[in-house]
Structures are given as structure tokens and as C-alpha cells.
């Protein structure tokens, strides 16, 4: 499968715990995006990388959130001290420069 | 600020009937508009984009800058068209487009 992959697909955690998600983009796609989707809403932009550089972060991304893309390949999204409001589907997408974004299957986070 | 509005959360039609999913946008510049589709238990995928002016799976969408609309149409709906449809807008920054702003989505059900 050469599509965008995300791991884990599901994560259940207790409030206050830290979680980390991984996204593997399509090979040679230099842009990588993170979105968050809550029930009844469309995906909302969180942040994006061009190669290893994080070029924009949404105001939705509080200080508890951090994303990295070392070496411009896979990316990780970490949430520290999770809150119930963080429960959502976290989507990753990748694209070649200025072109169609291809989405992964998402990681569904449930914070108890 | 960029915004996408899909006024219908749910749309139900019979097989063979015409279908139109509405999308209105707000953006001060020249946006690029997309329709993404999510079939049951599948990932979000691009259906079509206005810049390519294609017809995909019988669907077309015309960008109307005067009415700031990008409605999705199909003359004869099929049961396999049942899915969640998201309209999305991409703004321009530094000469290239990047993050997508999504509407809340319309769930289309095509009844036999």
C-alpha cells in the first residue's frame, strides 16, 4: 500500500496522559498536513510541513500540542496532558508541492 | 478569513434522480475549490477540483465567482454515490496553495 498511513488507528487514554501519533506520507511528497475532525464537523487544519520545516500552526494547536517531521519523512503529533476536548479524529495528509492532498485513514482519539 | 458553508447536513434522493449538493464560500482572493468524498469505512478522497474542470463518476461542479458557489451536481444519482461529501477551499500564500478549509459536509443517501 503506497498511500498515507497512520498509527495507531485508535487510541483510548485517560485525561492527563500524553499521546503520540505517527503519520507516514506518500514517498517523495514534500508537504505534510495535520487536521482534526470532531463529530459533525469537517476536518480543521492544525499544521503543515514542507519537508522538515513546520511552516504554519493553527490557533487550534495549543501549547499542549507539538508536531515534528524529522528528516522530512514521517511526522509525529504529540498531545501532552490530554483533555476530554481533545477527543477527535486526527487526520494526516500529504501532497507534492501545490497539488492534491491525499489523506490517511486517521487516528481516532478517545480521552476518558 | 476563509469559510465554506454547506447548508444541507443530510440529502436524500431516489436512484436515477438528479442531485445537487450546495457549497458556498467566502474568500477575499482567488481560491481553489475541491469536493472530497468519504464512502463508508473509507478514507477521505478527492472527487474533483474546479481547476481541472473534469467530470468524475458523473459529477460536475462549476465555480461561480459572482455567487461564490461551487455546487456539486449529478444528473442521475446511483446507490453507490451514497457517502459524505465535503466542499473545501484552498487559499494562496507565497505563490502556492496549501491548507484546506472544509465545510461541515453533506451526507448523501441514494435510495433504491
Q: Spans of chain B of 5+ residues with little confidence (pLDDT < 50)?
A: none
Mean pLDDT across all residues of chain B, rounded? 91
Radius of gyration of chain B: 14 Å
Based on secondary structure, the structural category of chain B is mainly beta
Strand-residue proportion of chain A: over 45%
Helix content of chain A: under 10%
Could you explain the architecture of this structure?
The complex is a heterodimer of chains A (112) and B (112). Chain A is mainly β and 112 residues long. Chain A is built from no helices and eleven strands. Chain A has strands at 5-7, 10-13, 19-24, 31-37, 44-50, 53-57, 65-68, 75-79, 88-95, 102-103, 107-111. In chain A, strands 2, 4, 5, 6, 9, 10 and 11 form a seven-stranded mixed β-sheet that branches. In chain A, β9 and β10 form a beta hairpin. The radius of gyration of chain A is 13 Å and the shape is globular. The termini of chain A are far apart. In chain A, 35% of the residues are buried. The model of chain A has no long low-confidence stretch (mean pLDDT 93). By secondary structure, chain B is mostly beta strands. Chain B is built from no helices and eleven strands. Chain B has strands spanning 3-5, 10-14, 19-21, 24-26, 32-38, 45-49, 60-61, 72-74, 83-93, 96-102, 106-111. In chain B, the strands form three sheets. In chain B, strands 2, 5, 6, 9, 10 and 11 form a six-stranded mixed β-sheet that branches. A three-stranded antiparallel β-sheet of chain B has the order 3-8-7, with no helix packed on it. The chains are: A mainly beta (112), B mainly beta (112). The A-B interface holds A 3, 31, 33, 35, 40-45, 48, 55-56, 91, 97-98, 100-106 and B 4, 9, 36, 43-46, 49, 86, 88, 96-105.
From the structure above, extract its key features.
heterodimer, A: 112 residues, mainly beta, four-stranded antiparallel beta sheet, B: 112 residues, six-stranded mixed beta sheet, three-stranded antiparallel beta sheet, 0% helix, globular
